Amino acid sequence: METVEPVVPLDVELPPQLLLGSGKASLDEFERYRSPLKDFYHGKIVFLTGGTGFLGKLYVEKLIRCGVSEILLLSRAKKGKTPYERLASILESEPIFTTYHSNPEHYHDKIKIIDGDISKNQLSISNDDLSYVVNNANIFFHAAADVRFDESLKESVETNVRGTLEVLKIAAQAKWLDVFVYISTAFSNCTRNTIEEKFYKPQVDPHLLIKLVEMEQDEESFEVLSRKIIEPWPNTYAFTKALAEDLVRQFADKVPVAVIRPSIGE
């Protein structure tokens, strides 16, 4: 089996002043630091889902520091705030954006809001926004997910499974696509004693489950049945992430894909 060398040697450390959260790094200082990984992202246009979440905010900061041309951030109105108001609030209040207050224009120039909802068909984005994404995006980072362990199977499927399918469909249309990156979880295959860095096919067809959810009228009866459907997974989150990984596998002959399985973040 061919060994793939990491893009950046694992034993290479960033200078302390360039570490995120150190409070000492500026964008100018980081721009002077060179690495193959940073060079890969430089000048690229990235479509990002989940950019307002725990990991997503880190991706926004890292991508901006790597010199991307633009971040196309999928976001929806929530709690009485428009997507633009939510973004402004996050940039102003989150400590991860260490240089925002000294150079806010740099962030606003780099981020373009794509008004949409990951749980809706076709992401509920406008035709104009869809055309812009398809004709410009080089990289897809799909990090959006319903991470609640006690969420209903219906809600989890709509967001984590069907949402992933909708993003994959758009990525398959992208004219300048370099890679589709799916942010999964280390627990997507927690039913196995040994988990390798490969795809595992679940016992449930994700397409059939999506259709079942869309057709189901009696939600109470469906939720009773869902306990049997997800076995032996411990919760709907891990189960639906496993199904989403299988969708990514199915699209691997259409788009270049990668799956990241991070552990629990706190």
TrEMBL record:
BP GO terms, sorted: long-chain fatty-acyl-CoA metabolic process
Gene Ontology cellular component terms for the protein in this record: peroxisome
Domain of life (superkingdom): Eukaryota
Keyword RNA-binding among UniProt keywords: no
Catalytic activity entry: a long-chain fatty acyl-CoA + 2 NADPH + 2 H(+) = a long-chain primary fatty alcohol + 2 NADP(+) + CoA
Enzyme Commission (EC) number: 1.2.1.84
Boundaries of every Thioester reductase (TE) domain copy: 48-264
Pfam families: NAD_binding_4
Keyword entries, A-Z: Lipid biosynthesis, Lipid metabolism, NADP, Oxidoreductase
Function recorded in the entry: Catalyzes the reduction of fatty acyl-CoA to fatty alcohols.
Family, per entry: Belongs to the fatty acyl-CoA reductase family.
Protein name, per record: Fatty acyl-CoA reductase
Annotated organism of origin: Culex pipiens
Taxonomic classification: Eukaryota, Metazoa, Ecdysozoa, Arthropoda, Hexapoda
